[in-house]
Batch of 2 targets.
Target 1
Amino acid sequence: MNTPKPTALSARRLLLQFEGILNRIFGENLNPFYYLGALGFLFFWVLVGSGAYLYIFYKTGIEISYPSVEDITHEQWYLGGIMRSLHRYASDALVVVMMLHLLREYILGRYRGARWFAWITGIPLIWLIYAAGINGYMMPWDKLAQYVTVATMEWFDWLPIFSGPLSQSFVSQEVLNDRFFTLLSFFHTTSPVFILFLLWVHILHISYPVVNPRRGLVTGMLLALLALALIYPALSQGPADLGIEPRNVGIDWFFLFIYPLMDTWSPGGVWALVVGFSLLLGVLPWLPTRQKQIPVAEVHLKDCSGCRLCVADCPYEAVVMRPRSDGLRFLEEAVVVADRCVSCGICVGACPSSTAFRNEEKYESGIEMPSMPIAGLRTEMANDLARLKGDARVIVFGCDNAADIKEIRSEGVAVLSLPCTAMLPPSFIEYALREHQADGVFITGCRENDCYHRMGGLWTTQRLAREREPRLRWRADSNSARLRVFWASAADSKELAAELESFRARLRSLSNG
Ligand code: HEM
Ligand code: SF4
Ligand code: SF4
């Protein structure tokens, strides 16, 4: 699947520009926007750790819940109080990064095709995380808890599924019984298990999922949570009293933003909003789009030796190995699981049979993108190289999801744009430099740590550094001046053009000197 090119003011361009600013502040390795999912995991673990501590001292009961939380907060503020604040701020941070993660995947268009699975499994996560958080606000049994509990029960009463009104149980302290607190506590302590299970399903078809942010980011986030806990400790808002309707309670807008709506709208209206939003998210992957759908990868058994390189490099676990079915002497063969394939072409770049040094004009690789056969790409490259003129002839290999390299094609510059830079077999670089068809090779693609297809940038870097198969065999050490790598997003076209010019100037100085 190809992303549309960002128009001057598209959301994607704004996102890329904003992330460019974050890159300048934090660097590509610590840009929080590149680690939103991983930060979600970090905050989840902080919640589990701080929650386990609080649970040791929390008491379940109408008369004892509030005092027990007060004890935790004030009697042992140096640990219990900080844990309570960490618990609250980590939960806020979790919903913030979750919603930013959702928005980012949406803006980048990474929710269609085979990505529907991660998208759809994200929806119950939103529900569960919100349910657990709202439930958490009921547990201290202060005025906020009373407000949230009664409003929630009235909201549920609107559904025609309960035999009697739930809110009747909250008309007075006498009617309410301790079993309610046991239930709250049970749901709150078991929900992390369900969340963890859903997270596991969420990343089930993602190879090498990034579930841990870089150490610097972890340290920074933990310090920020600690600073918040010390400056604005989480406090209760006075004991609940069902005889008095709570007024002017402060609410946590990250979790409880629908509650003020409940005061002004009908419960049905709020249900329509919540269910409507979920349904909209649920159908998004299948709504019509102008995005071009590229056919998925296909295996050509006669050129597959069962080497597993495509399995190792596929970012979406879309290639599996099966026992050989065609009688050739190899043990295994590659098989593409079509509904997991995002058509990135990375497997083609990984396959040894994709080498540009094949004698046949119409050769096939072990694994191919049917709409971009490897032999056709070699011909396209050779034809573009053949027309180059001047003393700094360069071929640029790039990615359809990053800076548009077709704009920089010129008399001295040939281009080959691929669905992902890692679709490029390293042998194409050697081929371009062979017999002086080009003076230099320039490689570009999505910004560092932000590959649209997740692993393409890393695999390319490792193949060029000869740390990953298939390795670049050409000895870059003696010729490195003839190879340049520059990562540039669709918002970095100017920087890309400038870097290419500096590379060509360097090539000219090499040939003159
Ligand atoms: C706290 C909740 C969530 C956590 C911790 C989380 C975490 C993650 C992680 C770790 C990845 C893999 C990232 C990578 O290695 O590239 C991922 C991918 C993804 N997530 Fe989430 N996620 C959450 C909620 C959601 C939600 C609510 C949605 C949308 C409804 C969503 C949509 C996606 C999509 C579409 C991908 C796949 C991206 C791709 O194909 O490159 N996630 N998530
Ligand atoms: S690496 Fe190949 S099989 Fe895997 S998602 Fe990309 S195109 Fe599909
Ligand atoms: S990389 Fe090529 S040869 Fe190796 S298993 Fe995959 S398709 Fe077969």
Note: The chain has a mean pLDDT of 94.
Target 2
Amino acid sequence: MNSKNHYDVIVIGAGPAGLTAGIYLSRARLKTLIVNEGIVGGQLVLTHEIANYPGVESISGYQLANIMKKQAMSFGCDIKSNVSIQQIELEGELKNLMLSDGNTFSSESMILTPGGRSRTLGVTGEDNFKGKGISYCATCDGDFFTGKEIVVVGGGNSALEEAVSLTKYATKVTIVHQFEHFQAFEHAVTEAKKNPKIHFKMGSTITSFHGSENLENVDLKNLKTGETQNFKTDGVFIFIGYVPNTEFLKGKINLNQWGEMVIKADMSTNIEGVFAAGDSTAKKYRQVTTAVGDGTVAALAVSNYLHELKAKQQQLITI
Ligand SMILES: Cc1cc2nc3c(=O)[nH]c(=O)nc-3n(C[C@H](O)[C@H](O)[C@H](O)COP(=O)(O)OP(=O)(O)OC[C@H]3O[C@@H](n4cnc5c(N)ncnc54)[C@H](O)[C@@H]3O)c2cc1C
């Protein structure tokens, strides 16, 4: 391995968590490489407008991602995007990476920030209307549906809690759930049921989305009778689960039953020198601000880890 391909830190993922880590690490004069599967920005680039990032009243996700990228590069951070990981070795003193383009890299430490994705219904029209009436995040998009009538899909705690929170904006929220009973805590069900703005379509599912530019209506299928009805709506929020992008880490690092990376308060994992940050870790709230916060903590913890590692190595040389 030539020294050109050896880094102090390799960060996997260039979403807000990874880019923030890149900014802090490069600014601390640590030789840093960020490797990203798609285009830089992660879920930010799927976000039409970010209106809850402190200090910025309103900005497109794409723009915010590009500012973060430029900021990291201005401090000397290397970024490789649109590449996939062929092989990753986390154990041992040196961490190793082989990419699909044949390049290999090594590092003293790694920060894993592969993020995640919302589980989708996978039905006709869903891809077309993402961000044009279909949303997977109430905190992010609820405000855009002020005074509108919307649908919430799902029957777990997230769906019910988010449905209640969306009644701050929407005039009517219809919860569509495939079963006759909810899979949520009793208090979440009670809160939803006592809210006069919330209506229910149990034993039903959306089979397709329709509209011209924006979503206008959906096909709702009653799973008992098989009947389908067309249902007019201004928006649909889907809360049927979340999938962390950690498939490539299975068997290599401690993951919980949902595939989320298990971390300590300083973002360290069960493997020495390997840290994790952002949406792919085990946590409750997933936002740009929380990802940025995690990325900061992970970068500072890595700086400290490398500092201590170098001190130990110096001590050994002196002895
Ligand atoms: C439609 C939508 C709207 C949203 N709106 C808002 C909002 O208004 N405000 C807000 O605060 N939050 C919003 N969010 C949530 C916010 O975008 C996420 O919480 C945040 O992006 C998480 O950052 P992250 O860096 O942890 O992960 P991500 O943003 O998911 O980035 C992870 C990156 O890692 C890459 N990656 C994955 N696997 C690999 C691999 N094996 N090798 C290399 N790279 C890999 C991915 O390609 C991606 O670029 C929204 C999310 C969505 C989907």
Note: The longest helix spans residues 288-318.
